[in-house]
Description:
- The chain is an alpha/beta fold.
- The protein contains 20 helices and 25 strands.
- The protein is globular and about 80 Å long.
- The chain starts with a strand and ends in a 17-residue tail after the last helix.
- The structure holds 6-O-phosphono-beta-D-glucopyranose.
- The site of 6-O-phosphono-beta-D-glucopyranose has 17 residues, from α9.
Amino acid sequence: xxxxxxxxxxxxxxETLLDSLKRLEYRGYDSSGIVTQTGTTxxxxxxxxxxxxxxxxxxxxPLQGRSGLGHTRWATHGGVSERNAHPHIADQxxxxxxxxxxxxxxxLRAELEDKGHKFASETDSEVLAHxxxxxxxxxxxxxxxxxxxxxxxEGTFAFSAMHVDQPDVMIVGRNASPLAIGIGDGTSFVGxxxxxxAHLTRNVIYLKDNDYAVVTxxxxxxxxxxxxxxxxxxxxxxxxxxxxxxxxYRHFMEKEIHEQPDAVxxxxxxxxxxxxxxxTPLAREELRSIDGIVMLAAGTSHYAAMVARYWIEAxxxxxxxxxxxxxxxxxxxxxxxxxxxxxxxxxxxSLDTLxxxxxxxxxxxxxxxxxxxxxxxIAREADLVMPTRAGPEIGVASTKAFTAQLTALLCFAVALxxxxxxxxxxxxxxxxxxxxxxxxxxxxxxxxxxxxxPLAHSLTTARSALxxxxxxxxxxxxxxxxKLKELSYIHAEGFASGEMKHGPIALIEDGLPVIALxxxxxxxxxxxxxxQEASARGARIILVTEDRAATAVDFADEIVRVPNVDPIxxxxxxxxxxxxxxxxxxxEKGTDVDQPRNLAKSVTVE
Length: 606
Ligand code: BG6
């Protein structure tokens, strides 16, 4: 998954391209590159690694030109190297940048190589440059070439192509991967999302699947596959929030962990109606008609879905199926028992989740997008949007978006339960006021940084670690393990405490760190016995719990205490210490906390 940008009709456009790429670096940081053109030549600079490397190269050798393309890469096909970095240029005549996967690239490449084309990289994307070259060499104009290339390629794509003789023309196209065209005053832009363009223009055209467009400084002509002109509306997007800074923290992740009281409070406000009671985007009648929910998500968002399942089934007595988004549509799910699908995504762009939501929609389910990025593809395509208000999340490992998702999902569960008559208005308001107390409880829990630091230091030498949780804390154990994996590269696994004895307990040996989540809930006793079984085999029990439950595990080696909390809120509050533990372990290990290796903030390939 990569970030692409382009501009036509702007003097010294290289700086602008670089600035837009900075806003897309969350989409991949394996390598990057920019190509500009002066009307007779292409000038290109590419660099392996973060955008910083490209900035340095461009300072040393600035690029001239009034139009160009830029790219930041998350490698899919071909290793991380300069020759696999984008842009790709064919025969010094056509330059392209691409996000997505051209699934039939091998066949097309072989056909082109048979015709004498010389490929320079191992990527699937380079085939686009040679396909356009073949079109132009056969005398096609931009419009014809666009239609022809789209008719040949299969897969997911957002691309932009330029011919060296046509400095003011970009040909762009998309299928599944996001693409926005920015209309300026005598200048036009293209970007993987509006965020990359919002500081340049607020007039944005979103292409639909299998659309392509010929973009010039005057504007964009959009066509459907096959070449029929179509009209796509110009949307006015939110003004740019400017480049988000770290606000004095060492990392965006550290800042975002500290922003959780606000993220939870703002999300709660978005889920509270004018009369001060819980409300959701779904009308009461619609809530009442829901008789089954499919939750679709990836990564950390999937664990939020798993927590929500416990709440919704316990409170509203509505069956919930939690689906790993990348598995959902290919397993040919039986959807009859469900009437709604909730797609959970911080970015609103994860392609696995988007395609799963589309599949559920095509099967007749009402689709609800729980997203943190307004204007994202899932937000635009879902029947209804339930926003989290965590603000921009830059750190690749999700933190504040997760607790904001949990807050919105708990509000949704309570509103659904009340609408279904499973709880009364009094209980609804009780839980609502409990949630109101969360921001200050999280604030107190943020005071644990110093206490957790020595624990984190001791984990830096661990080869692996286990996370245990029972009932609604099981998904939080999974999230804790994911955080340690994502950030410190220590192999960690989360398990349901009760499941340990059926196999994973074999992993336990002397001193193996077992991070155990425990709340004073109805399964506390059972969970404590599971920890006893692990401790009996030499595990080092690191207990993360609320004060009043600590005594239940008096054999713990270390205890991290959060304020006493109602069991229904425990998954949200106990998430914070496991985030801090993973952050500090990574910090102590010196890994790249905000941009861990091999990851990207949201992945728009399947
Ligand atoms: C991964 C991110 O790419 O996508 C994770 O590294 C994230 O942090 C996952 O949880 C899902 O992303 P989203 O935006 O759909 O919630």
